[in-house]
Amino acid sequence: MNFDLRFPIGIMFTLFGGMIAIFGLATSGNDIYTAHSLGLNINLIWGAVMLGFGLLMLLLTWRGRKKNSPPRR
Amino acid sequence: MQQIHLGGIDYSILLIYFGFVIGIGWMLKRYMKGSSDFFLSGRSIPAWVTGLAFLSANLGAQEVIGMAASGAKYGIMTSHFYWVGAIPAMVFLAIFMMPFYYGSKARSVPEYLKLRFDEKTRGFNAVSFAVMTVFSSGISLHALAKLLELLLGWNYNYSIAISAVIVLVYIFLGGLTSAIYNEVLQFFMIVFGFAPLVFLALRDVGGWTALKAKLIPVATSQGYAAGTWTQSWAHMGGYKENPMGADWFTMVAGLGFVLSFGYWCTDFLVVQRAMAANSMSAARRTPLIAAIPKMLFPALVILPGMIAIALHFASGNQFLPLGKDGTPDYNMTIPTLLAKYFPTGLLGVGFTALMASFMSGMAGNVTAFNTVWTYDIYQSYIAPKKSDHHYLWMGRWATVFGIVISVGCAYLASKFNNIMDMLQLVFGFVNAPLFATFLLGMFWKRATGHGAFFGLLGGTAGAALFHGLAHTNGTEVGIKGGWIAQHFPFNSEMAQNFTMAIVAWTTCFALTILISLATKRTKSDEELKGLVYSLTPKPETAHEPWYQQPVTVGILVLIVTVALNIIFW
Asked: What is the pTM of this model?
């Protein structure tokens, strides 16, 4: 089976991370952050973390593909 | 508590997640060529995937919600479920039992029993497991729908229908592989969904040291020593010293040995994931790979509970919603924390993680059910000697009716409050003796089929008998015990359940030995090769790097676990 699970995981977290981080940027300074997450823009922070994880998964997928099918010269 | 309001972005995250879940099922459809692909993933999955799925299949929302609730109610003693209960059992399974599950070519746990013992032992296990697992699935479904109704005001029936359909679709299409892949997705969702919750809650309470200080009045106000919520062993000398009501022996033997080993080593729900691995080495590493994050999970699920009760107390009993008797509604710990600390955006992630864990609990039960039904009940007793294609077809339809029965059980649970208690009870009756049967089967070649079957039956009956005679002070006689007579009083339900488990296991163990010695062996040494320790060549691992050797990794895991126990003594 040639289904690398890291690929959908990577895409999903890149997507989620990106969405949340951008939302965090767009709502920066909004009082939802003082009401909930102790004043921290947790959307931006955690969105960036998830984005990083998603990209890491995609990187691992890409390296896995390179290892399994070396480029022909 | 604050009602949860989901914003547009939160719903988007939820919908995207469901899209991925069904999409994965859709993409796997073309790999489902035969029954072995559908039920066993063709034994082709890499260890890191089976390892995370192994952990995740067990990590239903009842665990996430339940462990946080226990963290609030009992404090760090709850970690015993992990550090004394789960981890040693997972290591034992990896090193000693996987060679038999994987090497014997059994396609399920009941099938192992047939190969090792006889048809009637298999039948007993298959039927009791199938019933319990589909009930479990129904209860997950009910708990989810109830929570959604409470938190968001969603219609109960729609929640049931939508969740059931989503799970049905992705398993129908992609079988076990789909369930496994989605469990891995769910694992990462839970970690990313709950880690920020712990971070924010811990920050709010002032850090670990401040938390410890705030938990002192929680303990003293209930009549316990100051450190009871933050010390996991120091107050286990006697049952009166801690809120769990258990002394260290009852806890170690009842929970640590019988119940944990009974679950982790014999429950097909988790073992199925290890059996899907792509090699013997991968299969043995699966529970160990799962054990590593499992060791750290107390920080993710128990710690929030401890923080919640500290905040509840410090705020004058304002933080958590109260039950009818004025005590906190512990099951609302996680929802309360989510509502408080997560703004819209992250709330979508946390909420999706919660839903994902409920649904994957269902999915795990349904895949275990459809396999046991098709191979151990249908193929064995109803329609043997059909084509593989026929069994694949049966497996798909077993998925459908497994889900239909789950929905039925969900409605039953909504009508009768006691259903969850009943299920716990039946689990205890059946699972506790089972581990004795497996231990003897795998390590004592003299154990016979009659011994195993009647030992199991006797152990189950012994558990029921004990339950009828045991009773926890202050509870109603009936489903919680004492329905024959109130002969054995207990201070807490946990202590009663742990003791019942010990009784069940010991009865089964003793009976199996006695009856085996009194009956003739029906299998020769040659037939038992690959099924019994003394008759099986040890797996060859010397050529593997140290971090892939099961025994080495197992020992390391145990050392770290012991260290954790000492740190939080």
From this structure: 0.90
Helix, strand, coil content of chain A in percent (nearest 5): 70, 0, 30
Q: Which residue of A has its CA nearest to B197?
A: A37
Count helices and strands in chain A by DSSP H and E runs: 3, 0
- Provide the phi-psi class of B210: left if phi over 0, else alpha when psi is between -120 and 50, else beta: alpha
Smallest Cα–Cα separation from B505: which of B466, B450, B448, B447? B466
Element holding B409 (H helix, E strand): helix B388-415
* Partner residues linked to B479 by β-bridges: none
Distances (CA, A) of B257 to B209, B232, B250, B470: 32, 17, 10, 21
> pLDDT at position A49, please?
96
| C-alpha to C-alpha distance for B51 and B227, rounded to whole angstroms | 35
- Closest Cα to residue B112, out of B120, B100, B124? B100
Residue window 26-45, chain A: list those with CB within 8 Å of chain B: 27, 32-33, 35-38, 40, 42-43
- DSSP string of B485-536? ---EEES-HHHHHHHHHHHHHHHHHHHHHHHHHHS---S-TTTTTTTSGGGS
Q: Which of A2, A32, A42, A44 should we substitute to test contact with B (largest number of B Cβ atoms within 10 Å)? A: A42
Chain segment B110-155, per-residue pLDDT in tens: 999 999 999 999 999 999 999 999 988 998 899 889 888 888 888 9
Domain boundaries, chain A: 6-65
CA B253 to chain centre: 18
**In this predicted structure, what is the pLDDT of residue A73?**
53
CA B91 to chain CA centroid, Å, is: 16
Neighbours of B464 (CB within 10 A): 18
> Which of B177, B343, B348 lies at the smallest CB-CB distance from A37?
B343
For residue B545, name the pLDDT band (cuts at 50, 70, 90): confident
How far are the Cα atoms of B7, B62, B158, B162, B216 from residue B141, in angstroms, in the given order? Answer: 24, 11, 12, 10, 37
Domains of chain B: 8-415+538-567 (1.20.1730.10)
Give A-chain residues touching B44 at CB under 8 angstroms: 1
Chain B residues with CB-CB distance to A23 below 8 A:
9, 345
**What CA–CA distance (Å, rounded) separates B194 from B428?**
30
Complex prediction ipTM: 0.92
